[in-house]
Amino acid sequence: MTKSTWLITGCSSGLGRELARAVLASGANAIVTARNSDTLADIVADYPGTARALSLDVTDRDQVLSVVSAGIETFGSIDVLVNNAGYAYRSAVEEGDEREVTDLFATNFFGAVSMIKAVLPAMRSRRHGCIVNVSSIGGRFSGPASGYYSATKFAMEGLSDALRKELGAFGCKVVLVEPGALRTDFAGRSLHGSSKPIADYERVVGHRRVGADKSSGSERGDPRKAAEAIISAVAAENAPFRLLLGSDAIEIIRNELTGQMDELERWALLSVSIDMDEAPGVERAR
């Protein structure tokens, strides 16, 4: 049986790092990337024949193409792309700095788009492949201070939904990973925030600002178990499109969907009241 080859972005820490380790331990090949490939030396050291560490800034189109080309040259194909590179950003909507938000989208969304477009020609040609896009429970709902971060993940969710329907005809699949809180540095070192806070918003978002959020280190989710869950989902014959990770993710999204359904039913009569009146003798299609 031919080994599968994974290309994983954002492996310097957190979920990406644990996923790289788990993929290599499973016996698969892995192109392991981070902006500074030196941070990956310990991951690939024990797998000289199946691992390759490469520097990659997903916002650099030339680097994206170079890494994909190098991966195919080394292992013959890329079977699974994991778009994991990204970071958190906290600010009230009014506080968001245009440059900071543009940079956020460049990494969290457009970087993933570049990766997808770089690997798809070969996947499509081979009629085989899987795109794993790491979203968040913040891709299904948002809260104070998370508007811009959630916007990048909502964008990823919409893109992924279309992508899976486009790729189905080619034997390729898409898995959208939606973690809850994982015990990584996501809410610590990796957390960015507005450089122009507005005092009026302190009561609403102050506890979630950089330096004020004390949740780092107490999260429920184990990133090692999350990595194993992703591998299992990708290997499944009927892989899920959306994969929630963590009991908190299930609880939060179940409540969110229940609330959305309640609101839909509460306003359904007003919603349907805007339909065009039927011409005489024409029955409404059911």
How does the SSE layout of this entry go?
Elements: E1 5-8, H1 14-25, E2 29-34, H2 41-44, E3 51-55, H3 61-75, E4 80-83, E5 88-90, H4 98-126, E6 129-134, H5 147-167, E7 172-179, E8 191-193, H6 202-205, H7 223-235, E9 242-245, H8 247-266, H9 268-272
Parallel strand pairs: 1-2, 1-4, 2-3, 4-6, 5-8, 6-7, 7-9
Helix pairs in contact: 1-7, 3-4, 4-5
Describe the structure.
- There is one protein chain.
- With 286 residues, the chain is α/β, with parallel strands linked by helices.
- The protein has one domain (5-249): Rossmann fold (3-Layer(aba) Sandwich).
- Helices cover 43% and strands 15% of the residues.
- The protein is built from nine helices and nine strands.
- The strands form two sheets. Strands 3-2-1-4-6-7-9 form a seven-stranded parallel beta sheet, sandwiched between helices. A two-stranded parallel sheet has the order 5-8.
- α1 packs across α7 and α4 (98-126) runs parallel beside α5.
- The radius of gyration is 21 Å and the shape is globular.
- It starts with a strand and ends in a 14-residue tail after the last helix.
Please count the beta strands (DSSP E, at least 2 residues each).
Answer: 9
Number of domains: 1
Beta fraction of the residues?
15-25%
| The named CATH superfamily | NAD(P)-binding Rossmann-like Domain
Low-confidence stretches: none
Radius of gyration: 21 Å
Distance between the termini: 50 Å
The main β sheet shows up as: 7 strands, parallel
Which CATH architecture?
3-Layer(aba) Sandwich
Helix content: 40-55%
Q: Kindly provide the name of the CATH class.
A: Alpha Beta
Overall morphology: globular
Instruction: Look at the helices and sheets and give the structural class.
Output: alpha/beta
User: Could you report the average pLDDT, rounded to the nearest whole number?
Assistant: 92
Number of contiguous helices: 9
Looking at the structure, the CATH topology is Rossmann fold
H/E series, N to C?
Answer: EHEHEHEEHEHEEHHEHH
Strand order in the largest sheet: 3-2-1-4-6-7-9
